[in-house]
Write a structure and sequence with these properties.
This protein is α+β, with helices and mostly antiparallel strands. The chain has two domains: 280 residues, Creatine Amidinohydrolase (Alpha-Beta Complex); 129 residues, 3-Layer(aba) Sandwich (Creatine Amidinohydrolase, Chain A, domain 1), CATH 3.40.350. It is 29% helix and 16% strand. The protein is built from twelve helices and 15 strands. The strands form three sheets. Strands 8, 9, 10, 11, 12, 13 and 14 form a seven-stranded antiparallel sheet that branches. Strands 5-4-3-2-6-7 form a six-stranded mixed sheet, sandwiched between helices. Strand 3 and strand 4 form a beta hairpin. Helix 7 crosses helix 11. The longest helix is centred in the middle third of the chain and has 24 residues. The radius of gyration is 24 Å and the shape is globular. It starts with 6 loop residues before the first strand and ends with a strand. The mean pLDDT is 97.
Length: 461
């Protein structure tokens, strides 16, 4: 009789290939994004939109303009017509001139680093007034978060206070970040074919790095030596590199240290660049016999149920499905407090690692064509069982978007089809035709990291 359910077996992970170069977004796409934003501004009744960015939160500005600030903050002003204005400090003034979108540059030295010259720029209020911010104006402010009340804005007070003073009591200054990140239809949530191709390229970089690490990880390395196996190529990170082994691994989100990785250690790694992130976690052993006696059922107790839940999650993905269905699957399968699931089981990804998430209890938000997701279901057991993790990137595409992708990016399309076939044939995870896996580690989960050739499967054996 064939076995069914999650099993640990020897598997050959194919080489899916990588693109030789990063796809370039068409320059014409940036003015189109501004016009799409202006249409949303008009429907909301805004006179001006103010987009604030800093190094950690530059995704919306980069999406709109192709410019992301370095060292400093930056402010984008979008009016009803004409080229947008950009306010930058000493060190970004020149860099902003390289943006693919034409921008009218203003020097605002208050955005510069502490102690730098501040003697050549006009006050913020004067620049804003010249850009049409005035009494009675309706101003939308885009930062990086939304809140229950639009009155709550996380952009620095010196910007918000100045806007409110200029608009006066008859004006309006409110949070408009949802125009770009609303989980149902935000401008950065529904991606076109060119943006998705860039994300597929990014996913090959991060998943390739994690694969190299898994294949070469050895006890006796330091954490810093191990992280070099990721071979980061300088593409902007979407989060800091995370790699820890031993007791610190339980804490999560930490950077690598000089600690020597030991046999039997807990281990976790996460590698994210603009548009992609991959994460894996497990134990630095070859098999369960090397684990403490109390957790030698690690695969049966934690990894197997987790893998089965994620497999069902994948199987439910399709354009038009209500996002709450994905939450229900994880709640039903991994709702026992032992698993410690408390964050949204999956979220949208873009240049930033977490854009938003429609996946919540009872959510009726339909999954839409063009959405890119991070398969991000994280057990936090808080026990000796530690965790397991299988974070990869995917996208949803209806027939028209799939046809456009295949025609415009045939090599990437071939990689996607090979990944789909591997997931179906080797892992037993059948995907709806709408689902495009981007990772070169597509749902590949080896729990014992010194045997990366042994991974979980749902395929009958």
């Amino acid at each position: 009789m064939s076995e069914t359910g999650p099993r640990l077996v020897e598997l050959q992970l194919p080489d899916f290939g990588e693109p030789a170069t990063r796809p370039e977004l068409p320059v014409a796409g940036y003015p189109e994004r501004i016009e799409a934003l202006r249409a949303r501004m008009a429907r909301r009744g805004y006179d001006r939109l103010i987009v604030f960015a800093d190094r950690e939160h530059s995704a919306s500005m980069s999406f709109l303009t192709g410019f992301d600030p370095r060292f400093e903050e930056a402010i984008l002003i979008v009016g009803p017509d004409g080229d947008p204005a950009i306010l930058v400090g000493n060190e970004c003034f020149g860099m902003a001139g390289a943006a693919p979108l034409p921008l009218r540059r203003h020097l605002l030295q208050d955005l510069s680093l502490p102690g730098q010259p501040r003697d050549r720029s006009r006050p913020l209020a004067e620049i804003l007034a010249d850009e049409g911010v005035g009494r009675g104006g309706r101003i939308g402010v885009v930062g990086w978060k939304t809140y229950a009340s639009r009155a709550t804005i996380e952009v620095p007070s010196f910007v918000v206070d100045t806007l409110r003073e200029l608009a006066g009591p008859d004006g309006l200054v409110e949070n408009a970040t949802d125009l770009l990140i609303d989980p149902a239809d935000g401008l950065r949530v529904i991606n076109d074919v060119d943006q998705l191709a860039v994300f597929e390229w990014a996913a090959t970089q991060t998943s390739g790095g994690v694969r190299r690490l898994l294949e070469a990880l050895r006890p006796g390395m330091t954490e810093r030596e191990a992280v070099r196996l990721l071979d980061w190529n300088g593409t902007p990170l979407s989060c800091h590199l995370m790699l820890t082994a031993g007791p610190r691994a339980t804490l999560g989100l930490l950077s690598p240290s000089d600690r020597v990785i030991e046999r039997g250690d807990r281990f976790t790694v996460a590698f994210g660049i603009w548009g992609a992130l991959n994460c894996r976690a497990g134990f630095v052993v070859e098999d369960a016999a090397e684990l403490p006696a109390t957790i030698r059922d690690y695969v049966d107790r934690l990894v197997g149920p987790y893998f089965a839940a994620v497999a069902e999650w994948y199987g439910a993905l399709r354009v038009g499905a209500p996002a709450g269905v994905l939450h229900e699957i994880i709640a039903r399968r991994l709702g026992d407090p032992f698993f410690g699931i408390f964050l949204n089981p999956g979220h949208q990804i873009h240049l930033d690692e977490w854009v938003n998430s429609p996946i919540s209890p009872g959510s009726t938000i339909p999954l839409a064509s063009g959405m890119a997701f991070q398969v991000d279901v994280i057990p936090a057991t808080g026990t000796d069982y530690f965790t397991t993790n299988i974070e990869d990137g995917i996208a949803l595409a209806d027939a028209a978007l799939r046809e456009a992708f295949a025609a415009s990016y045939p090599d990437a399309w071939s990689r996607i089809q090979a990944r789909r076939a591997f997931m179906a044939d080797s892992l037993g995870i059948a995907l709806h035709e709408d689902v495009l896996p981007f990772s070169n580690l597509p749902s590949y989960l080896p729990p014992f990291l010194l045997r990366p050739d042994r991974a979980m499967t749902m395929a009958a054996g």
